[in-house]
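Action item from last meeting closed. Structure (472 res):
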């Protein structure tokens, strides 16, 4: 754990008792703060009390002694409508922080020569894969690297810092918007497309949150920025003009004259004088597809900044096992392959999966986001049939009408069984059942991980049932 600093003997309120909220409360206590916590969910409050935390209803309490409010990233404080506790904090002039800002304050309190290195990774899609990939490369190269933030371990639950340590942080727009002082030695922006627009009051607010990852970079730092969408291109050009960090452009859509490019499954490193092929991703089974070319390019640039050799990076990429719930092959039987892409919660992420496979029996739906399946029509040729689930099934049926054969299944278990029967009887070579929902999971599952694990269990159940039907 990393103790939160700067709040000794001060009363700090924590609103939201999920993974990051509980982590922040414990870190504040470790730093000597007086901590009061609250959550609108009864079960979350009960669980917090059992750990020894003090629960007080923040909407009914006197705020005169509260020095700061630590807000969990999932709780809105501006758009679409601020939570009532956030409104109360603003009304009485109490600053609102996130757990990532507590992490930043703790690191900034260390003497510069003893601080760990921080690589921050953001973007609409690809953050988790790049975070895990970069951490894997750094560890294989002999570094003491630890991943956390929006993935896996909350940043304050990471091991205590020491000289030579490297933190690799996945950073969401929700986390970045509540961060004021985070200094990333390496800042990566993978891509930028409309997402979470209701939460940020439109695209400008979403982009402003993402841009904060570069805010405190200095000479000697690296800014790794995609050139594959117009919004990222603009940010890359602005970063070059500002002239602070060393800007390294990346692309998975063409060869760059300067930067790291992924072209036809190979990574190229280009400078003003030469271009060299560095890594053949054909030998990296977990890094297939154009989107993974972008992830690999970003990780390569960061690992080079960390001092790793080309050979060390290439070897580590080949052994990278991949990320659970992101185009993860979880089984293949009776000629049907099953792909768990539960992490694909928006259309841009789904585009990557539809562009990677053919003969697809597509399980799609859940709690829809703005735009639904907009922009995917050019990928529908790879889809044999769609099996629709969740709250979005009626809307998606309308969007797909006349474009893709679709059936409303309601639940994931119905979709899996019906997709399997259709794929098995299709006569197509290597049919793929692809769970790539283009939706949040909260209508039927706690999160995308629970949805992915549910899919894994259903596929396992299919295998078991087929075995039982075989004659002894």
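Sequence:
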């Amino acid at each position: 754990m990393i103790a939160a600093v700067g709040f000794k003997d001060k009363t700090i309120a924590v609103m939201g008792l999920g993974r990051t909220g509980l982590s922040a409360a414990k870190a504040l206590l470790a730093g000597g703060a007086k901590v009061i916590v609250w959550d609108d969910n009864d079960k979350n409050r009960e669980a917090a009390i059992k750990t020894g935390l003090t629960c007080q209803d923040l909407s009914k309490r006197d705020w005169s002694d509260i020095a700061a409010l630590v807000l969990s990233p999932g709780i809105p404080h501006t758009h679409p409508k601020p939570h009532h506790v956030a409104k109360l904090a603003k009304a009485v002039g109490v600053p609102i922080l996130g757990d990532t800002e507590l992490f930043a304050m703790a690191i900034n309190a260390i003497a510069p020569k003893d601080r760990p290195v921080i690589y921050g990774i953001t973007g609409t899609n690809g953050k988790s894969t790049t975070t895990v990939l970069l951490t894997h490369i750094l560890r294989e190269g002999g570094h003491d690297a630890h991943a956390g933030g929006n993935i896996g371990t909350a940043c304050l639950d990471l091991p205590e810092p020491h000289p030579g340590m490297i933190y690799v942080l996945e950073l969401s727009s929700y986390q970045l918007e509540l961060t004021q002082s985070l200094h990333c030695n390496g800042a990566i922006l993978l891509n930028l497309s409309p997402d979470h627009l209701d939460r940020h009051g439109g695209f400008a607010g979403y982009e402003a949150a993402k841009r904060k990852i570069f805010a405190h970079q200095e000479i000697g730092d690296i800014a790794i920025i995609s050139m594959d969408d117009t919004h990222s291109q603009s940010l890359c050009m602005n970063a070059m003009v500002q002239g602070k960090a060393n800007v390294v452009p990346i692309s998975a859509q063409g060869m760059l004259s300067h930067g790291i490019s992924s072209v036809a499954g190979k990574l190229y490193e280009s400078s003003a004088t030469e271009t060299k092929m560095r890594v053949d991703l054909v030998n990296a089974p977990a890094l297939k597809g154009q989107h993974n070319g972008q992830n690999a390019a970003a990780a390569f640039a960061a690992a080079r900044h960390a001092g790793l050799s080309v050979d060390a990076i290439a070897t580590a990429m080949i052994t990278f096992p991949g990320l659970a719930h992101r185009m993860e092959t979880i089984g293949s039987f009776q000629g049907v392959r099953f792909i768990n892409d539960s992490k694909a919660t928006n259309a841009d992420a789904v585009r990557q999966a539809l562009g990677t496979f053919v003969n697809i029996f597509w399980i799609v739906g859940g709690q829809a986001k703005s735009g639904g399946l907009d922009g995917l029509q050019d990928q529908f040729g790879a889809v044999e049939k769609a099996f629709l689930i969740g709250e979005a099934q009626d809307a998606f049926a309308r969007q797909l009408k006349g474009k893709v054969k679709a059936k409303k299944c309601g639940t994931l278990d119905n979709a899996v069984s019906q997709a399997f029967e259709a794929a098995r009887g299709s006569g197509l070579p290597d049919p793929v059942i692809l769970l790539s929902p283009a939706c949040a999971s909260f209508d039927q599952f706690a999160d995308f991980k629970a949805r992915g694990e549910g899919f894994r269990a259903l596929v396992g159940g299919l295998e078991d049932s087929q075995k039982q039907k075989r004659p002894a």
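Note appended to the action item: The radius of gyration is 23 Å.
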